[in-house]
């Protein structure tokens, strides 16, 4: 029976046999690789656009206020007088805008 199956197989490459792997490759690219590249580019542009006064969250979950920036590092104030230095790559997201953080600080100081 196995021998008859081998004899029935076509000897040449069929057009559909070439399209199927190409279609799988396109699906993998558009649903897995391309979105990951976009997320990476968005994260990089976010980290480059950080400014003093931004309220941020690190990848470790630490909340703070950006008080100083260099090309590679960010100094974050987590409590009054407590400042920590992080790599820019350790910043996960921004919590609020600078205007809202200034309003919150003004209300807390009053």
From TrEMBL:
Membrane topology, record value: Single-pass membrane protein
Localisation per UniProt entry: Cell membrane
Transmembrane portions of the chain: 15-33
Keywords recorded for this protein, A-Z: Cell membrane, Membrane, Protein transport, Translocation, Transmembrane, Transmembrane helix, Transport
Keyword Cell membrane: yes
UniProt key word Thylakoid: no
Family to which the UniProt record says this protein belongs: Belongs to the YajC family.
Protein name per its UniProtKB record: Sec translocon accessory complex subunit YajC
Organism in which the protein naturally occurs: Hymenobacter frigidus
